[in-house]
Amino acid sequence: MFSFLQKIGKSLMFPIATLPAAALLLRFGQDDLLGIPFMSAAGAGIIDNLAIIFAIGIAMGLAHDGNGGAALAGAVAYLVLTSSIVTINETINMGVFAGILSGIVGGLLYNKFYNVKFPQWLAFFGGRRFVPIITAATMTILAGLLGYAWPPIQEGIDSAGEWILNAGMFGVGAYGFLNRLLLPTGLHHVINTVVWFDFGTFTDASGEVVRGEINRFLKGDPTAGPFLSGFFPIMMFGLPAACLAMYATAKKERKAIVGGMLFSIAFTSFLTGITEPIEFSFMFLSPILYVVHALLTGGSMMVAYALDIHHGFGFSAGAIDFVLNYGLAKNPLLLLVMGLVVGVIYFFIFYFLILKLDLKTPGREDEDEEGAENASSSNTAVDVRAYHTIEGLGGVDNITAVGYCTTRLRMTVKDSDLVNEKELKRHGAMGVMKINKTNVQVVIGTAVEFLGDAMKPRLANGNPAPAASSEAAGTKNETTEEPAMKQIIAKDFEMPIQGEIIPLSEVPDDVFAQGMMGQGFAIMPTGNVLHSPVDGRIVSVFPTKHAIGIETDTGIELLIHVGLDTVKLKGEGFETLVEQGQLVQRGDALLKLDLTFLKANAPSVATPVIFTNLTEQKVTMLKNGFQEQGTASILKVE
């Protein structure tokens, strides 16, 4: 359940990323700024439709491959749910929860049915095309149930919300404390979503009912803001002051090294309100220090409430949102006064605890080389950094999946004990959190997307040592010897499609039969879906869909050519299920075939499987004749 909630939290970040655009448009278009009505309407178009945006974004985030088919399923789920549930009870308005539920259902159903197979006469509706169908049916049933079950659920949520809203400073203080305390797990996104987009109601001038603290604030609700205001002093002043304390307590000879890094993350927090790079730099060094930070956040929320300050944000409580929403705020200047006081408190508490507890914050590490590359990581090529990050995570064999959110890598590994935290920090990581035996989070900062994308092709290629890294090249020199890399052991190759294995020499095409394109074998398929026989990366998907190129994780290039002269069919009879650059595992569906059409329109359906870049290696067939898709140990390459 914890892992599932983490996935939900990660998926929420995708639709939440639309909020800055909405807030900018909504504010700049209002009369106190530019006074352009259509600009405000554009921002309201996002704010007013957050529920369906959540449905689409969460479904895509939960999909194993992020495919747009999942997004369509999420949208279908939301439309079916909201349209049908009101026929049972016209007063029901699930708000953002309708989007969250629809996104979860759409994403889960996509993962389960994206490669479903049907008989030939129903094949058109198989695979991804089936997902919206089963989603619509499922949501119709759920809508029927929720039509009767949701009113008491909503009443309970409203009661909890009203209790917190009416609990005064203790309510906002508890929220602020939990918001920071749950940050290491990523579950703060879940409670934020409830508070930001569901708690409280406001009826605007047009009669529209608006829910949630952020929505109500941006739409002019004078009571909104207490659950947002207290974050400004923390993010603009408190945490930057913590960075100053860490700089002041750093070893004299290390201050020049860590100063640039600390200034960078402090300024990021002040300007944008992105605080994770700072928080992860100390949360694991001393849980007590982090609890103090959470308590100070709760205290800031309570003081802001007591001073009757109402301010809000569209993304986070940084200077950008402070200035942008200044015209909507009440007593906003008091936040600056609070910020100065909070900054002083943070500096002295952090300074005292770091020295008293001898915490190894940046610049105080026992090993001289610790963190040396951390300070210069911004000048290191992202490819080199990706190499070292993979090695620090235990290497290619230990990594199962790569994901990321706003500032951190969210890794699935085989054994978190193999993750080298010191190695990761030496090469740019600001913090490492081992959630459980198979889940690890690495705080990188706002450049995490570039690092994550650079890691994926490296994982597919076995993470060869980068030319720019002499250290890596020296320690991994043996990986530059191609013949040693290019091998496939028997258990790592599976039959890609049901059918009969035949020698290349029996393929009725001289180019393949004489081995001009490389060693391999051929299949006379009887199945309708081609699957990946290996772990690797899709390096080419032909425009005519008849052939797919795969590069294995050991560096071997593999071409699967379905039928002969099928290029002339211009894609008819094929449906691609993958995209170029996509990572695949053995058994993943690659291509859907209309075998009846191909047999009627192609000279032959013989499907050569060719290894195109072997030099000294030899392909040895271990099985022949008819084989089921997924049968292992078909061949070996050595």
Automatic annotation (TrEMBL):
Coiled coil: none annotated. Its main location: membrane. Residues 509-613 form the PTS EIIA type-1 domain. Signal peptide: none annotated. Residues 461-481 are annotated as: Disordered. The active site is at 405 (phosphocysteine intermediate). Residues 383-465 form the PTS EIIB type-1 domain. The keyword Transmembrane helix applies. This is PTS N-acetyl glucosamine transporter subunit IIABC. The lineage of its organism: Bacteria, Bacillati, Bacillota, Bacilli, Bacillales.
